[in-house]
Amino acid sequence: MSFQLPEIIDNPNGFGPVGLNAQFRDIPYAPYSKADRLGKIADWSAPEGAQGGAKDQRDNQRGGRSGFRNARDNYVPFGSNAANAFNYQHTEDEASFSVVDNRSGAKKTVANKSASAQRSTRGGFRQQGQQRNQFQRLGGNRAGFGVSRQQQAGGGPGGARGGRRGYGNWRDFDRNQRVRDASVKVGPEWNMLEEIEFSRLNKLQFEVEEPENISLHGSVGTYDRAYDRVNTKAERFLQQSDRERDIVTTSDDPILNDLASKPGREGEKRVFATDTIISVLMTASRSVYPWDIVINRVGDKVIFDTREGSQVDYVSVNENASDPPMDTGDKDNINSPSALSLEATFINTNFAAQVVKQDETVNLENGNPFYDAEDSSAPLVGYRYRQFDLSSTEEEDISLFVRTEFDGVVKAAGGEDSYITIKALNEFDSRAQGAGGAMDWRQKLDAQRGAVVATEMKNNSCKLARWIVQTMLVGADHLKLGYVSRSNPKDANRHAILGTQICRPKEFAQQMNLQFTNGWGIVKTVVDLALKLPEGKYVLVKDPNKPLIRLYSVPKSTFEQDNDEGDDEDAGADENTEA
User: Fold this and answer.
1) More exposed terminus of the chain, fewer Cβ within 10 Å: N or C?
2) What is the pLDDT of residues 316-326, one digit of tens each?
């Protein structure tokens, strides 16, 4: 028989074929990727089932021999699941096939037993760490959340077998991606003007000088130092206050309206907002939940407003946790994001009213702008109106007028009274979904206060940053934090104060890596963007599922219909009451 070489098609201009042979034309295409990993033709040292079967998966979880293979050994090539003509089919019986291995079996057994013993005693930590890193890359929950410290360290039932995953992390990588609803429905007539990613916001910087104080309004109580001695063994029940605070937006503020009606300097452009709105803008890159801000451009003025019932006016819970609270659709679920937000807002209002002495009040220069002087239901809160200069050049003249709030004063022994803001962190259920790995405060708050604070800084980074910004905007010397927990994890109506903590806002901001120059850079960017727009109404919307904000141009009648319906309902209720 003569041997003949097949036809070779040479490519003189480069590497690769220049045409397709007729014998390959009817063969279907097999998808592939340049990143596909080439496998081994035969691996005699790999144990049985090392190609990713069920037995191999069980061994991997138990820290067995196959569990120590590189994670790339289980890599599935691109397109391998596609049906194609290249899949190998068994056509003959291979039962008679056997592998001949001349290596010594005795040494191999002893070596395997020795290595297995070492891995079971020392390798559990390493194996568990590999699994944590792997599932973090896959987008799952951080290892350790929902499991005990013993399981986190590799001890207990999981650690004894080489670092099995804790029950709180089981199949976190397979969890459905959460899709949140927007805070406001984008209408078909809305026109998107700008889209800004958080990565761009984080690069902004702007310096703002000390503001000018315009006026002080309201009355505040003196902080009761007896609450500094409250702890888990001497807790105090949270009482409901009769003095509820009304949420007043910028356009409904009589002081800001009076300032807006007065003529400004020649060429001056004025911006009006509340400290709540400014704090949302300054910490926008930390936010996860959706929000929206209404912008009205009128003449040389820009007014930042909030809608009635806007999420901006409520306090979030565990917004920045790796596994935040989830809305299950159950209206009776007290641990849903909306229910927890209402609960946290209720706690903050009542805590601020309880820890100040109602009989030792300090009347400020002017009365409360939202209540009559004889109204006994007026809340104890101080309003400080301040003017910030946002001009970046000598030719530019931009003034920002902000209504800021503080909650009380602290009596000094031989000095002046200092302003403080009072906020409360709340615990709902350390074992519930969405707790973010929080410790049980009644067991850990007194002995491990630093660990509790670190967890709250991680799970509530955006909320704490807003509180620090509000404290800095008003010029308060301290931020008073309270730790409030449910008396019963299943009851969202009864709470207890477990402790308090005083914080200096600048030092707290450094611990949280909060830069005020970056926050003012965001505010400056949004203000400049609004001043370039023509007169009209606009809405700044935080995307519910992506780290970006969008600016929409909306009709002037947007949101007015909802307010009119609310006014009609209130009027109807008053008529029924009179009848």
Assistant:
1) N
2) 999 999 889 98
